[in-house]
What we know:
601 residues; Immunoglobulin-like; 2 domains; six-stranded mixed β-sheet; 8 helices; 12% helix; elongated
Amino acid sequence: MNRITILIALLFCLNAQAQTTAPAPHPQTTAPAAPLSEKIFTHTDKDLYLAGEIAWFKIYTLDAPTLHPLSTSKVAYVELLSKERPVLQAKVALDEGLGAGSFQLPFSIPSGNYTLRVYTNWMKNTGPQSFFEKNLTILNTLRDPGYLDSLISHSPTSYQPPAITTQTSTIQINSDKETYNPRERITLDIQGPPGNAFLSMSVVLQDSLQSTNTNDILSSLNQNQINQAPQPTIPPDYAGPLIPGRITDKLTGLPVAGVPAWLSAPGSPFHLAYATSNSEGNIWWDLGPLYGEHELVVQTAMNPNPNPNPNPNPNPTSNAQNLTNTRYRIDILSPFYNPTLRQPTAPLQLPAGTSQQLLWHSIAAQTQNAWQAERRRRFSQPPITDTTAFFGIPSKRYLLDDYTRFNTMEEVMREYIKEVRVRTHNEGFIFNVQSDQANQLFFENRPLILMDGVPVTNINNIIHFDPLKVRKLEVVAKRYFLGDTIYNGILSYNTYQGDLAGFPLDSSAYIQEYEGLQPHREFYSPIYETDDQRQSRIPDMRNVLYWAPDIRLNDNNRRQQLSFYASDWPGRYTILLEGITADGTPAIVSKTFIIQSPSKK
């Protein structure tokens, strides 16, 4: 008996090795049992903008008691709201609790006070009382000149520059000079305390319209009271932005639980997510860190074994299966919270006697968009470091250009792909993946079939597709556990551009436009090293000379030097350094310098 028991155990182990067990590609995430004390703080390069300018911001996601950066959430949701109406929205990637982004303010935006609101997916469980909110003023001199002149002429108040309070003396800013000529090089030396410090820096003109008004990080976080939800229903963004959806029955309109669905982002590499609706019909897909604009393909997930008693020749395109796939409606929902604010936005007010300053700011905004438009639209995103598909290393990879190209996909599959058996049944084709190469055995039930990451249920579409559009085929000749579903192997086809190349989608699939994580916009700062550059007749009317959102000091690098160039706009400028030190102490350090007019050289 002992020998028989050992033999059975050995056979069981061998069978287990023949199966690939893996989580779903970016599986549906569930909220952790322990609530997170997550708070968020954001500061901007300045508080007043003109239409056409760029608003820059830095985000800190912090643990409430300690103010240490909290790395649980990987995405922050940023909104610019006008009277509880979203004007601009973005998803910003977080790295170790820190992130940075920007908004290009359109020339059509009306003048007024706006609210910048920032939160994470996890913070939605506690509602808007835990979100970060900050007031920003936006003026549109091209659209509202009469309205702005009326505000200035009827204002009973004059400009009083706010005082900037330095909250820590452990970080110092030193400049090489106190006064600079236009287009002269400015060098700053930043020194920090022992340990880590996470900082950002802005260098902004100060006048009667535009002044530096710092937010106390600690008091701002204390204002955002959090009452943790007893049973959180919205999970955090552990890898990338969770894409919410809802599945309903087309006949009744009621939410349906337990329905699996695919979400695909075709590309090179592709992104694929699999999830199942909960008791309220809600579903969340996680495609990982997906940047920029994409077309997503959403569809219900086909049961690979539709028959209770599968026969050797199951028909994957049966009418019953198609009815199941087309019975449900899938809606992709907005990931942004409803636009309810904690407090109403204050009416717009402007200091008296600022007409001249407003004119200069208007000229500057138009000048920068006329002469620096392309340089202000440079974006980058993290390089793709891992192009391996979710199933890992395939059993076999076929690059079809390495073979004689046939005119039909059926010939390709029958002649070259030895790991796949091609059969026909009731005028439909069936693929079976090899399960045992030595004994030439094949799985009885269908594999998971992908075209550029989009699941394919109708194999006839593969057979009738032009093989000259297919660059690569990868075969996984093992069972693959995906959620609660077992697939008997995987066939992954890739076109040359990763764009499906006109491949027909299944009847249950549809395409949804999607805006992923915001790419990183590069801050443009001109260089005036040579006489030709300094004597250029292109005007430089920048009032934000520099923006550096990711300054990090540590024990190995407690000192940094930064340099940039003065613009043609004379006046007093403030260097503002903000952030968090290693022990959770908010840091605000400022310093001023002057750019003198050319006549005062």
